[in-house]
Amino acid sequence: MPERPQLPESVERAVQVPLGIVKGLKATFMTMLQPAVTVQYPREKEAIAPRARGVISLVEDNCTVCMLCARQCPDWCIYIEGHKDREPPRREGGKPRTVSKLDRFDIDYGLCMYCGICVEVCPFDALHWSPEFEYAEPSIADLLHDKTRLGQWEQTVPEAPALEVGAEAPKGKKK
Amino acid sequence: MLAGTFLGIHAAYWNVTLLKLLLGVGFALLGAGAFVQVFLFKAVSHLQSRLGPMESGPHGSLQLMAEVLKFIQKEDVFPAKADRWVFAGAPFVVIMSTLMIYVVIPIGPRGVVANLDVGILYALAVSSISVIGVLMAGWASANKYSLIGALRAAGQLIAYELPLVLAVVGVVMQSGSLSLQQIVAGQAHFKLFGVQGLGLFAIPQIAGFFIFMVSAQAELTQTPFDMPVAESELVAGYMTEYTGLRFLIFFIGEFATAFALAGLAAVLFLGGWWLPGMGAHWGSAAWMRELVGGGVMFVKVMVLGFIIFWVRFTLPRFREDQLQAFAWKFLIPLALGDILVTGIAKVAVRA
User: Fold this and answer.
1) Which of A107, A125, B13, B156 is deepest in the core (most CB within 10 A)?
2) Contact, B117 vs B179, CB < 8 A?
3) What ipTM did this prediction achieve?
């Protein structure tokens, strides 16, 4: 806007106040002519951002029972139990291997504050964010999701977005 | 036996009175309901990019019914230290003052409960009775928020009563009558620059129209003049302690008054039930004239009502001292100037 010469303050106010009122009235009237932003939720759904923090899913095979997530959790809402097991050697004539087996992996969503630290700290990509959010329960005890249920959320996890041009190539990962 | 006539119906006096009573109260309730449903629930929601009630009936059209039923079911609570009789009576004083305005508002050539010769004076006089009800409510609630709200309301209603009355003086001078039917007729006869439609007093009395609408907004304690019920400071002002049916009566009173003041503004400044182009003998039958007149009046009232709610949901609230300064230092001098100019024009032009 071009600069106007400055008028005395009283004159300036006498001009600005009615102009401001008219501007406000115009803004609300124009809003009325446009469709409302409200989405009638149960019948129609809003498009959610693909990276939204809805629920945490678990890939059971990637978990090594390292307990990093449970120890970092500010709410102590992750419960993990496991045991050591013997597996046959990979090569002929080798030593039998010791592996950790996951017995229990529960997240209590009644306590979870959706900070995402567990997803960040997991060194083996066993935890992922899913944008699903419709898992309210009549009973608060049912908000404890066990590893079967957490594993089912994995299907709703979106593909990771493509890397930026010139980004460092990801390091080789265990399949 | 005493006989009476209303809308061309001749009957016993008590029959006619009963008919007038039912029609008057019915119009007040329907008017308040129309304002709440059409503007407060829906239009205002769209002003804020919302949808408003959608679940009760198609597009929430039965929401008003649900709200009224809800209020009727609620318990009638009295605060322990309340002055019971005054507390109980206050809403009825407010709604009585509102209903009494409906007596003189014409919605057709014969569609008026009582065509008083001093109609506009009577309407403005009874509309200020509601201040007493508000003060009763605030005092009897034994609650400091209620009392502060009531005192603010009293200060505001009295301050804005004055420009409201002064704005009407210009119209009365121009039409030469205090009767609302005569004011409608005056606008039908008055010609500005020889054009009939320009005779609607909103055009020669544009300053008066502006002052009337602003003061009406303040009289209704609608934002930006809602200091008496400022929810962020005073809970709900003088209505804080009220529940159920008594709160509903206050609520109906507020919106029935809005409908009535929009009606008065339509009669005073927009020609009431008359439209430019209607001659003296328009319409083929008497009942047609009443019907068309009522329709024209309703459209005008709804347009003015929309302006009231549009302003209400656009502007932020005044500070208390700004509110008083706006009435005493701006509106009243402007209204007095308007009267002066109208007087000079009246004498100079001899219209």
Assistant:
1) A107
2) yes
3) 0.70
